[in-house]
Amino acid sequence: MKRIKHLGNFLLACVMAVVCLICLGVCLFFRMDGELLAVGFITGVWAVTDFYEAFHKEPIEERVGGQGDERDVFLAMKSSRTAMGIFNKVLFLASVLSLWGFAKFDLAFLLPVGVTLSGAVLFLFLLLLGVNLYYEKRG
């Protein structure tokens, strides 16, 4: 029997397998619903993929650690930071535009969209702030 190499993927695969079985069981025994069938199929594929990764792949830190030099690590950090910055700006712009559209044109569906996007922007800001503070103290 193979050893579990990544416990996080194994636990997620177990949860997804349970969700898949519940969806397919409800679909089979109670009512045939296309949405439940689709969710069961998607979670089943997710479970199979995570089971494979749990037994065949090592954690990302071990895979990348031995292969990259300082320049590769720096480029990965710089590119991920740039991508995060672009994503934050696009998310903020979308939230401002949806709130502006609600205020200007009185389209009711834009208010929850704008509030949700603003909450996501706030969450990402607080997450980035927390990560920066963590690495400044321990880095």
Automatic annotation (TrEMBL):
Keyword Membrane among UniProt keywords: yes
InterPro entries hit by this protein: DUF2178_TM (IPR019235)
TM helices/strands, residue ranges: 7-31, 37-55, 86-103, 109-135
Keyword Mitochondrion set for record: no
Top-level taxon in the UniProt lineage: Bacteria
Swiss-Prot/TrEMBL keywords: Membrane, Transmembrane, Transmembrane helix
Name of the protein: DUF2178 domain-containing protein
Source species of the chain: Candidatus Acutalibacter pullistercoris
Lineage: Bacteria, Bacillati, Bacillota, Clostridia, Eubacteriales
